[in-house]
Amino acid sequence: MSLDALLVAELLLLGCAVGFLAGLLGVGGGMLLVPFITLIVSSRGVETGLAVKMAIATSMATILFTSLSSVRAHHRRGAVRWDLVRQVAPGIVAGGLLAGAGAFSLLKGHWLGLFFGVFIAFMATQMLLARPPKPAHRLPGAAGRTAMGGAIGFVSGLVGAGGAFMSVPWMTRGNVPIHQAVGTSAALGFPIALANTAGYVIAGWSLPATLPGAVGYLFLPALLVVSLASVVTAPLGARVSHAMDVRQLKRVFALMLYGLATYMLIKAWRG
Fold it and tell me: Which residues lie below 8 Å from residue 15, measured CB to CB, with a gap of 6+?
């Protein structure tokens, strides 16, 4: 099967949409990338369970590129708590490697698909409710922060996400100002992506290539095209977000997430 122009066009459109929506609504690209890459890959003959794994791994790998520009922007505004990054990152690396090289390869693809479907349904509900977390206490000490990093890295590796869905609420409940929580979470996205991607490569090293450009669980054409397109369109989405009220758009997006969650649950159940 050749890497045809239609596939490149599909990936380019997906990358543009993901980047724009990420900039506009402040959502992680994995919630869109995983369902659509699953659809694209499985429509080309890849077994459903493996297609889900390839989508999750490829989605995570894109964060290696997209997180860098985000971190730079937040750092310029003084919104990154580098002391927290240094304490949380070791746990993230350990948890990410454990997920990517261990649990990811051991779990059946349909179980990962079911888990991802439940995950994005939960995120859609959070978006609809729009309840900001209430500060309740201070963050734990260094050991507790490293342990939390392990949990964030592990769970992120199973869903192909950058970890903000866990790290931002955790930090804001610990009385970290929201802009610092978001900026610090962006900085944590790179070690999450690096550790998990390394784990996926290790786990899938011996797998035969299922599609042109596939290396184990990574679908390199999707990684390249989606990353380039999303980096270009994310700043445009961010500029548009400052010129309009996105609260209604977030509600519409949440309803779309319910549709994607339903697709993933049905796909995984049948697979």
Answer: 225, 226, 227, 228, 229, 230, 233
Task: Identify whether the C-beta of residue 91 lies closer than 8 Å to the C-beta of residue 149.
Answer: yes
Total domains in the chain come to 1
What are the tokens at 241? Answer: 């977000």
The whole-model pTM stands at 0.82
Domain that holds residue 61: 5-270
Side chain identity at residue 35, one-letter code? P
Instruction: Give the C-alpha distances (Å, rounded to integers) separating 3 from 10, 13, 130, 149, 168.
Output: 12, 16, 41, 38, 38
Host H or E run for residue 218:
strand 218-219
Backbone dihedral angles phi then psi of residue 198, each to the nearest 5 degrees: -60, -40
Reduce the DSSP state of residue 41 to 3 states and report it.
helix
Residue 218, pLDDT > 60, answer yes
pLDDT band at 64; cut points 50, 70, 90: confident
- Tell me the two tokens of residue 54: 């390839």
The pLDDT confidence band at residue 134, using thresholds 50, 70 and 90, is low
- pLDDT tens-place string over residues 141-166: 889 999 999 999 998 888 878 777 78
SS3 of 5, please? helix
Q: 241 near 80, Cβ under 8 Å? A: no
8 A C-beta contact, residue 192 and residue 153: yes
